Amino acid sequence: MRYSADMIFASALLTIVLAALPAEKAAATVQATDSPVRLDRAMVLSGAEGPPVLLYSATNVTDDALDQFTVIAFIFNAEGTLKARQTAPGRRTLDPHGTKYSTLVLDGSAIEASDQIVVGVNQAQRVNSDAWWRSDIQPAAEAAVKKKK
User: Fold this and answer.
1) Mind listing the pLDDT tens digit for each residue in 98-119?
2) Angle at 127 between CA 53 and CA 121, to 5 degrees
3) Which of 16, 68, 69, 115 sits between 20 and 30 A of 134, alpha carbons compared?
4) Backbone angles phi, psi at 130, to 5 degrees
């Protein structure tokens, strides 16, 4: 069976385009019960070059504007052991009940395809306030990971 040059070219072009698309992998999200910020749809995007990037949406679940909040990512190996933590620089201004999309470049350590990534908000500060809301979300992140036996 002979293929036309156009068919071969189209097949090669499709292969190149698909290889250039970033691979997506869902990241688990966790939050403290009293967290003023909820993270939704967290995805890890991996391109052909460069470190993976975590894309997430953050929603202010309060009636108060937030001046800033901090996102932390936990990277677990295939066995479920914590191998790295990475904190994003403080994210700025989140309106009451507003949602923002943001990213975190996961360049703190090498990430394997079998690694599990869990992300959450560990602190936030309201506008015109010196007080911070804080929570240790690492236990929740550890509980969210599938451990291999």
Assistant:
1) 999 999 999 988 889 899 999 9
2) 35
3) 115
4) -90, -10
Q: How far is CA 85 from CA 10, 48, 108, in A?
A: 43, 23, 8
> In this structure, is residue 15 part of a structural domain?
no
Backbone Cα Rg of the chain = 19
Number of independent structural domains in the chain:
1
Structural domain including 26 reads: 22-144
DSSP at 24: E
User: Within 13 A of 62's CA, how many CA atoms are on the CB side?
Assistant: 15
pLDDT in tens, 20-71: 555 789 999 999 999 999 998 899 998 878 899 999 999 999 999 999 999 9
Q: Is the pTM of this model over 0.90?
A: no
Largest CA-CA distance found in the chain, in angstroms, rounded = 74
**Amino acid (1-letter code) at residue 55:** L
